[in-house]
Structure formats: structure tokens, C-alpha cells
Amino acid sequence: MAIGLDLETDSIKAADISGKDKSLDNYKIIHLDLGEDLKTRLKNGLKKMFSAHLANKRLVNIGVGGPSVVVRYPTLPKMPREELAGAMKFELEQHIPFKKDEVEYDFQVLEEFSPDSKTMKIALAAVKKELIEEKIKTISEAGLKISTIDTNSTALINAFTNSNPAGKGEAAALINIGSEISNINVLKGKEPFLSRDIQFGRLTIIDLLAKDKNDCSLNEANNLLQTEGQREEILELARETLESLINEIRLSFSYYERQFGETISKIYLSGGITALLQSFFQEHLGVPVLSWNPTLNLKVNTNLKDIEADTGKLAVAIGLALCE
């Protein structure tokens, strides 16, 4: 199986999963130097990752997210596969806010979630070509080969449904806070209903900290973000920005509730600043907010002694490694 490679602007995470028993053989997290330009830091991070830690691995699955990525879940009348390809071009125009010639797109029939024998539920993803080309260039320049390009939404859902923390029939939100993008998914049991990316991440707060601390470096601000004793100060500093994020999450919840007549019962939170935001989210959204472990139902290598502290950061990388 290919390495699941989660490329972010402040870190690179890799998960190496093998076999039918889904054995997590290895994982690595590389923190990037925020003082370097993005191209340089990714180049140096990948070199370090694959020369020192995963030297014999070259095949990777990567994810894409952000404003250049759209995921939708339309329901269509049942039709043969050859007709479906043509129908999806029409669905693109209905659901995707980009011109068709600007994107690469793919779709999958979600057989187990189709409402009845006459209809079928589809997962439709469209990604701007320039983003895909940029990712391919970064990976190929590092001497790696891409097996699969998926969306971070799909990867997150893969990891979540594999670990299976949600109750059957429970309407839950799955939120991952990345470096620059927060990913929101709404699922009922294992069935996806909504996937959305929002421009907010760890670097949003790091930038605020750097400016507040008399223009300290981004690396120094990142260290402050990881300091437990700074929690209340950081939340107060970022309150306005966090409240904007909360409003965007509420909009997503309201859309789901209007469309499907159900309320979100729980939020499952992942990402590098889960501990910072968990109680803040719960207080402002009025819904239980839980952390979750994407390594559940994986056979974890016993040599990975420190993984417990890192599990919340690995959701996307693990989900990408699970992509078939």
C-alpha cells in the first residue's frame, strides 16, 4: 500500500499502513521551518521525511483541500455506468462553482447509502487543475510517485469510519483543524451528507501571536501555540477570529438541519490544536465535542511508543493511507 502523505504548510505527516489487517507499521510528523518560503520548506521537509525515516518508500497517496476543492453528494435516478458519466457533467454545472475546463473531477456511487432501488447517491469531487499540477510538481521533485490523489474530506471520512467512534444513526460533525484550512463533514452513522472547507487553521492563530508579541518570528509564535499555560491568553487574542469560524460552522449545521430535518448531536474534533479548541467549541456550539483516535481498528506496531500523543494529528494521513 502507498504511504498516506498529509502535506500542510507547517508540517508533513506520513502514515504507512500495510496488509489486509491494516497494520500501521510506521508514522512520522515533520514540523516545517516557517521562516522559509513554502516551496523550500516543503522540499526540505520531504527530503528529511523520506531520507531519514521512510527511505525505502516512494509511492504516496496525497490529499487536496481548500477553496479550489468542492465535494458534493447528489442523489440521481439509477442508470447504467456509461450514462452516469454523461449525467455527471450536468451535475458539475449544478453543484460546482468552477468552469468545467478548470477542473479535474471524479465521482463514486455510494451503493450502501442509495435511498432505494430507483435512485443512487453519488460522491462528486472537483479540484482545480492548477492545484493538482502544483501538488504533482512538489511530489515529483521530491523523487516520489503518486498512487492516488483524493480530497482531504474523503481521507478524513475514511479514517473516521474505519475507527468507527460514532453511534449507528447518529448525526455527527467531523471537524479537522489543519494548518490553513478547517474541514467540516456531516455524517449520519457512516453516511456523508456535507463536506466543506473553511479558510482557518493553526497558522491563522500563529500569525496573530507573532503580531501580538512585537513581531516575534512565526517559529517562536508556533512554539507559544503549543505551550499549555498560554491557552486562555491565546483564546482571548484569537476570539474574534474564532467566533467567525464558529459562525461558519453554525451555517453548515443549519444547512444540514434544514435539508434533512435533524440536529447535529456530537462533534468529533481532530488536528494539532484540538486541546486548545475543544472546550471553546463546546461552549459556543452547545454540542458535546469529542476527540477521537484514528488508529482504532488498526494493528499498531508495538515499536511506535509515542503515538498516543500524536493520534489526533494523523487523521488525514491515516485516511489517505487507507485509500484504495
Automatic annotation (TrEMBL):
It comes from the Bacteria. PANTHER family: CELL DIVISION PROTEIN FTSA-RELATED, ETHANOLAMINE UTILIZATION PROTEIN EUTJ. This is SHS2 domain-containing protein. It comes from bacterium (Candidatus Ratteibacteria) CG_4_10_14_3_um_filter_41_18.
